[in-house]
Design brief:
Distance between the termini: 29 Å
Strand content: 15-25%
Keywords: Iron, Metal-binding
Radius of gyration: 21 Å
Organism: Flavobacterium hydatis (Cytophaga aquatilis)
Helix content: 25-40%
Family: Belongs to the HypD family.
Order of helices and strands: HEHHEHHEHEHEHEHEHHEHEHEEHHH
Pfam families: HypD
Oligomer: single chain
CATH architecture of the largest domain: 3-Layer(aba) Sandwich
Low-confidence stretches: none
CATH class of the largest domain: Alpha Beta
Number of strands: 11
Largest sheet: 6 strands, mixed
Number of domains: 3
Strand order of the largest sheet: 4-3-5-6-11-10
CATH topology of the largest domain: Rossmann fold
CATH superfamily of the largest domain: HypD, alpha/beta domain 2
GO molecular function: 4 iron, 4 sulfur cluster binding; carbon monoxide binding; iron ion binding
Length: 358
């Protein structure tokens, strides 16, 4: 990619909008997996330009949004035990059952907001008398950097460093959505950055099993419209294939070195998704050889008071069954300054996109 302007070209946008109006003859429901795609669709006004028969459904592709409440509560409990908790900034305002990480920091907890997990490793090396825990949240995209941090900590023989891991995987979530008896999704836009790491192999069985087009897409306006065009073209011609729109970055095989690093530290296991529940084989868990760096194993903190804010429909929004503005508290009690649920907090959350841009 040379210039962002190439993928925000108004003439190219107009071209794909016109082509979509030409080829669309039936109602189609298309789910974009990633919250970054949702924000781009909303921010750039693309939803209003699409043919009326094309309905975009917002998927669960926001790692902050799907991090379970119980894990946020556990992170807060760790802060109460004189642990240095390190986190990416977008996690710090997500509500747990009673408070957020930032609120716990205001009450005296030691919270460090970082840009890289390697910074947490350095903090652990500089504070050998303190336990340091990095709150590792994300999809496949951030898993390589998390794995590298663990490997680096092992090389330094750190005894005071661990990860509170909530890494989730996209394909199992897609299968859960498609297997729902009320599912009305006709096609998917796959998350380009996830496929940059993982490649396309996991999507072919899903497309074949459910007879559904999956088009891997980038995040700029022209990317998304081209991907939607290819999805609709498949639907209108009765095809169901995996296509790669994001060819400038995504290779069929993905990034082999990144996958090797991830597989060195992690294996696949069951994972809880906020407001959705446990999805089998949908997460990354530490291998036995790295268990000493797993905060879930290292610290025994039972969490039993998990609660969901009343009138928050985050689960229905994450499953794509409702839009953010269908929530009774949207823009009222629930705003970015006072979020009831994670989708209003995250920079990739659907509720935040609707509140900021619609």
């Amino acid at each position: 990619m040379k210039y962002l302007s190439e993928y925000r070209n108004p003439e190219l946008v107009k071209h794909y909008i016109a082509e979509l109006h030409k080829i669309t003859t039936k109602p189609w429901n298309i789910m974009e997996i990633c919250g970054g795609q949702t924000h781009s669709l909303v921010k750039n006004g693309l939803l209003d330009l699409l043919p009326p028969d094309i309905r975009m459904i917002h998927g669960p592709g926001c790692p902050v949004c799907v991090t379970p409440i119980s894990l946020i509560d556990k992170a807060i409990e760790l802060m109460k035990q004189n642990v240095i908790l390190c986190s990416f900034g977008d996690m710090t305002r997500v509500p747990g059952s009673s408070k957020s990480l930032l609120q716990a920091k205001a009450e005296g907890g030691d919270l460090r907001i970082l840009y890289s997990p390697l910074e947490a490793v350095n903090i652990a090396a500089q504070n050998p008398d303190r336990e340091v825990v990095f709150f590792a949240v994300g999809f496949e995209t951030t898993a390589p950097s998390i794995a590298l941090a663990v490997i680096h900590a092992q090389k330094l023989n750190l005894e005071n460093f661990s990860m509170l891991v909530s890494h989730v995987l996209v394909p199992p979530a897609m299968e859960v959505i498609l297997s729902d008896e009320f599912c009305n999704i006709n096609a998917f836009l796959g998350a380009g950055h996830v496929c940059t790491i993982m490649g396309l192999d996991e999507y072919y069985p899903i497309s074949e099993k459910y007879k559904i087009p999956i088009v891997i897409s980038g995040f700029e306006p022209a990317d998304l419209l081209q991907a939607i065009y290819h999805a609709v073209l498949q639907l209108e011609t009765g095809k169901f294939e995996v296509e790669n729109q994001y060819t400038r970055l995504v290779k069929d095989e993905g990034n082999e070195r990144a996958k090797e690093v991830v597989n060195t530290v992690f294996t696949i296991g069951d994972q809880e998704w906020r407001s959705i529940g446990v999805i089998e084989n949908s997460g990354l868990v530490m291998r036995e050889s790295y268990k000493k760096y797993d905060a879930n194993s290292r610290f025994s903190i039972p969490i039993t008071n998990e609660k969901v804010k009343q009138n928050c429909i985050a689960g229905e929004i994450l499953r794509g069954s409702k839009k953010p503005n269908q929530c009774p508290e949207f823009g009222k009690k629930c705003k970015p300054s006072n979020p009831l649920g994670a989708p209003m907090v995250s920079s990739e959350g659907a509720c935040a996109a609707y509140y900021n841009y619609l």
